[in-house]
Amino acid sequence: MAGIVQSLILSPRSLQPPSIQQRHPNFRSICNPYSLKRTRCVPSPIKIKACQQPDQGDSKVSGLANVWSQPLFSFVENNFLPMALIGGVVVGLANPSLGCLADKCYLSKVSTFGIFFISGLTLRNGEIGAALEAWLVGVFGLCSILFITPYFSRIILQIQLQPQEFVTGLALFCCMPTTLSSGVALTQLAGGNSALALAMTVISNLLGILIIPFSISRFIGAGVGVSVPTKQLLRSLVLTLLVPLILGKVFRESSKGLENFVDQNRKLFSKMSAICLSLVPWIQVSRSRSLLLMVKPEVFLVAVGMGVFLHIILFSFNALAIQGLATVSGGNWSVFAKKENADAFVLVTSQKTLPVLAAVVEQLGGAFGESGLLVLPCVAAHLNQIIMDSFLVNFWLRKDTASENGEGSLSNRTIIARHKEAF
């Protein structure tokens, strides 16, 4: 008895009564309505998992969509002009009825007016003034664009190909001034003298309105036995190209707010110009779809190859010309040997413009053949020159980056070494 009392004193029992689970081990508590901790009984693990699973799935789907959409949008943004031109050709071949209706509504003239009106809106005064330092390079560039490269049309006309309009169209392409936007854009990307590129672009297109009729009459009209209405063509080009360009420039200078808006949204206006340009091949191809379907695919591929060959010839000629001028006029210290000026010269003088060609073909009224057949190989040539020069500019940039990492600044590099690497 004394031992029992002693054990009870040394190990006292808990004052709290045993819980229900301790008294009944097989009993499972659901929820005590009188407990103060009722929140522990409310949440259910199954419900939480069921709510979380759709969120995780949605995030995975949205992440996968971003992975696919961002490269697509970036590709469209970087290649908007070639995609617009190709889209115009494809739509014209697929459904020519809309293009024929647009032709009856004179939409081609409206689109040409819009292209040059936008060019006037985006033309800056300071960019032209900055090119005065390299005026010698600009003068020789204008001579190459307007007087020298049209001679290559004689070489193109010696090629025998059916339909003959493919050959004549590329010969007309040789007589055109430089591109309105792609030459300047590629010059900026390459780090060249963009002001010089813009000056050559604007002046060559303005002077081209006066010179193109005489170039066509001399180099192509005699070769195909057609007399070109020079005065009528000149008047039409002035009304179609020069007037909207001047109007766009006047609108820009008349309002400071409009000028700031245009400068802040240059990409938007560039896309608008590309859309206007894409209407030209769309209408021309729609109008001549029946004839285009009669052309064999291998013949069209030959015409595309001719456009590629033409651009290679123009680029090689201008690259060799700038090298020779740099050597004759003082070597590395010459204004022709300066990398920025040489890049602008070669890129701008080696390209030909499609909008002016479309306007010329429109005004010729079928004097040299079917309009669609004349324009189609030039659309391919326009795309080819942009794509080829884009690859070349990327090649230059990679070479420049490697040289900067290995040899330091490129300020003393000459154009001779630059184009030897390119070819």
UniProtKB/TrEMBL annotation:
The keyword Transmembrane applies. The chain crosses the membrane at residues 80-98, 135-157, 169-190, 196-220, 232-248, 268-287, 299-322. Pfam families: SBF_like. It is found in: Membrane; Plastid, Chloroplast envelope. GO terms for cellular component: chloroplast envelope; membrane. It comes from the Eukaryota. Keywords: Chloroplast, Membrane, Plastid, Transit peptide, Transmembrane, Transmembrane helix, Transport. Its main location: membrane. It is a multi-pass membrane protein. The keyword Phosphoprotein does not apply. Belongs to the bile acid:sodium symporter (BASS) (TC 2.A.28) family. May function as sodium-coupled metabolite transporter across the chloroplast envelope. This is Probable sodium/metabolite cotransporter BASS4, chloroplastic. It comes from Ricinus communis (Castor bean). The lineage of its organism: Eukaryota, Viridiplantae, Streptophyta, Embryophyta, Tracheophyta.
